[in-house]
Amino acid sequence: MNVRATCIASASRAAFLATGLAASVVLPRAASAAMPNCTTDALNGAGVAGVSIASAVDVPASPPTPEFCDVRGALVTQGDGAPDGSAQFELQLPVNWNQKFLFWGVGGTAGSTYADFAANPVDYVESLAKGYATAITDEGHEAPNTAGSWALASPGVADAAALTDYYFRATHQVTVAAKELVSAFYGASKIAYAYFDGCSNGGRQAMVEATQYPDDYDGIIAGAPFFDIRAIVAGDKFQKVQLRSPQAYLPASLLPMIDQAVYAACDEADGVRDGLIQNPARCNFDPASLICAAGSSSNCLTPDQANTLRAYISALRNERGELVYTGASITDLAGGADVWSIGAVPPSNLTANEPWGGTGFSPAPVSWQFVDHILKFIVARDPDYDIRNFPVSIHGVVGDRALEFFDSRTRAGNGDDPRRLKRFLERQGKLIMFHGFSDPALPPFRTVHYYEQLAREYGGYERLHGGVRLFMVPGMQHCAGGPGPNLFDTLTALEVWVEAGKAPDGIIAAHYVNNDTTQPIDRTMPLCKFPEEAQYAGSGDYANGANWSCSANRKLLEVGSDGAQAGL
């Protein structure tokens, strides 16, 4: 679940736009001698079943990006108990092909191949230069990536083809077809290695591929995964809490004050006060500590606002008290929660079906957009449905029958069952996961909880590390951005693990001044494999990653009151 402008952080946007997806928007030119097959006729002539090629553009080299063939087309998707659908796709085929294939995830509810790119932006920047043939799909429909109206054929009637394609079919079938096109384009008998790289909904695609189609990829990168669509129910709970009264609504203007108080309480828990909270689950911060004293009315919270903040970090549970979805991290709310959950602009009508006006899009916070459209169009199948009518209480309890109904209409898109990863691991597939510890869109503790489930299922962390490694990213928001080091290379780490058998114990992350890659780097730090926490050497500049190390410890398993409220 992401919006490209937030998933591709401002820190990496300049580098991102300087490469292939932006460069592909050029006037066609004749295929060069180096790429004679870069024509629609040649690619249609490959005879890949169900594929129609609309364009093939030879894009000149623009260092460090090499010359590549930008291919746009569509695939007729079939089977899996649904009517035929159509998935748009884009291939980028470089002149310096390295014999490998790389598939990108898309964000939110998908809907395009360019606007919805959702994967590690550092990996994207280096992919064509490394020689990867890459692919991406719109997952079977065209729409804004917070929209859900595409899921209805008519009020009350689901578009089964579009939903099946979004949930799982399009990604798998485009994978199969794209591999055939790549092989035909280069005249290759086989592809040496195939990788998937996705974040947010792209992370959901990654996990669905790993659990439902374990033979598609040798290695997978899943960032901030939208594991299970139940995240929407947790989002519905929070929206009800913050909109229940004017006194309960928490304006964005108060978030910097909350951040400052949280850092004062939690920053030193890892042994050094350095402006970075390595494990927000270990925090013991009580929102009630910010309630206004008698006679005070500014830079503090009303009791109802404190309850709103508490609801934000609290788990969603069923009627028996069992965990349904974790709460969010309380760290680094400014610049994240204001966009995603709270809204930079206050609602115009707290009780309206659409409190921010319009049809559920901007200026509503991104979380509202997803909750509103998924509940309306995918679950209730009623464009006029009011999400306040979904049976989840402001106390964080969802009715069992309501949850089962929700699951019945969404579980086909989930990739959260630890047991279903077995086949991928048995065939020696490698999975790198990452998640920002200050993610306001998808709670980082959901990924931590899943990884703990994996460890129990597969014999503990040491054995699990043989096939799956999780890297939590302090201070990073959704897929990128935030005050912590948030740009890092997972693609090279995956290559080395799959192709040379060397697993990553740590990955160096960097932060640029103002998250602007045209500015200098002002901090580096190693990201350690979960449950290890990076350790400061005790001296030297804490902003220099050389003064931190990954060592055997389990400090990321430590839980304070905030982590307990979140469901850990």
Can I get a quick summary?
By secondary structure, the protein is an alpha/beta fold. It is 31% helix and 17% strand.
Secondary-structure blueprint of this entry?
Layout: H1 4-7, H2 10-17, H3 20-23, H4 40-44, E1 51-59, E2 68-79, E3 82-94, E4 100-104, H5 121-130, E5 133-137, E6 152-154, E7 157-158, H6 160-186, E8 193-199, H7 201-212, E9 219-223, H8 231-242, H9 255-266, H10 303-313, E10 316-317, E11 323-325, H11 337-342, H12 366-380, H13 400-410, H14 422-426, E12 430-436, H15 444-457, H16 461-464, E13 468-473, H17 490-500, E14 506-512, E15 521-528, E16 535-536, E17 548-549, H18 561-566
Parallel strand pairs: 4-5, 4-8, 8-9, 9-12, 12-13
Antiparallel strand pairs: 1-2, 2-3, 3-5, 6-7, 10-11, 14-15, 16-17
Helix pairs in contact: 2-5, 6-7, 8-10, 8-12
Number of helices: 18
Quaternary status of these chains? single chain
- First-last Cα distance: 23 Å
Contiguous low-pLDDT stretches (5 residues minimum) are: 1-28
Strand order of the largest sheet: 1-2-3-5-4-8-9-12-13
Structural class: alpha/beta
Q: Categorize the overall geometry.
A: globular
The proportion of strand residues reads 15-25%
What fraction, in percent, of the residue positions are helical? 25-40%
Rg (CA only): 23 Å
Largest sheet: number of strands, sense, barrel closure: 9 strands, mixed
Beta strands, count: 17
Please state the average pLDDT score: 93
Characteristics:
alpha/beta; 568 residues; 17 strands; globular; two-stranded antiparallel sheet; nine-stranded mixed β-sheet
Describe the structure.
It is a single chain. The chain contains 18 helices and 17 strands. The protein has helices spanning 4-7, 10-17, 20-23, 40-44, 121-130, 160-186, 201-212, 231-242, 255-266, 303-313, 337-342, 366-380, 400-410, 422-426, 444-457, 461-464, 490-500, 561-566, and strands at residues 51-59, 68-79, 82-94, 100-104, 133-137, 152-154, 157-158, 193-199, 219-223, 316-317, 323-325, 430-436, 468-473, 506-512, 521-528, 535-536, 548-549. The chain has a nine-stranded mixed beta sheet, with helices on both faces. A hairpin with an 8-residue loop joins β1 and β2. α2 (10-17) packs parallel to α5, α6 packs across α7 and α8 (231-242) runs antiparallel to α10. The longest helix is centred in the first third of the chain and has 27 residues, at 160-186. Mean pLDDT is 93; it is low at 1-28.
